[in-house]
Amino acid sequence: METLTKTQAENYIILHPISWKTFTGMSEELNENSTKRLVYDRGYLQIMSPLMEHENNNWFIARLIFIMAEEWNLNIKSVGSLTLKRDDIQKGIEPDACFYLQNEPEVRNKQNIDLNQGDTPPDLAIEIDITNSSIDNLPIYAALGVGEIWRYDGKNLRFYRLNRETQNYDEIMQSLAFPLLDMTMIPQWLEQRLIIGETATLKQVRQWAREVRS
């Protein structure tokens, strides 16, 4: 067992070898109310315990997404840190947050989503990766078919689009889900909320979204 503690934002534990059955059992036992995030790939299990900085960044980015969706009349379905896994490839991951946008109509009436049963994967997943996770999450997301990843490292936000021909992610400058968004704006808002407060920042974001749309 290897334990990695790199910052006060995230603590990682890597376990190997761990069976797929053990991973699926743990993900079901911890359920959606747990604050821990699990990643599984080829016998390696990573357990991440996010602390306040990580969770606060995650919550705030998710709130920004909802504001943009509301102001731009985009139907959205949030599935939080839903465990995304497929038995046939034995890969699984729990994003910090994930959303349906383009494919929202396909899952609108679903209370349970299971990729093993052929459900469509989320369109967008959020990764707060301040310590540089020991397991590379992007190939797992690619194998599971998540179309877009936003990765925030504590300073910069990067967008990635799944190239379905190569099954790899290409870094992009413009979000597929929110093409009106400048990628530099979210880090600025994350910094601003520490100065003027979250409520004041969110009000400014909402005003910006209205002005951009008009």
Structure notes:
The chain is of the alpha+beta class and 214 residues long. It has one domain: tt1808, chain A, CATH 3.90.1570.10. Helices cover 33% and strands 26% of the residues. It has six helices and twelve strands. The protein has helices at 20-30, 52-71, 104-107, 138-144, 185-196, 198-213, and strands spanning 2-5, 10-15, 37-41, 44-50, 77-78, 84-86, 91-93, 97-100, 124-128, 148-152, 157-163, 168-172. A six-stranded antiparallel beta sheet has the order 1-2-4-3-7-6, with helices on both faces. β10 (148-152) and β11 (157-163) form a beta hairpin. It is globular and about 50 Å long. The N and C termini lie far apart (54 Å). The model is unreliable at 1-7 (pLDDT under 50).
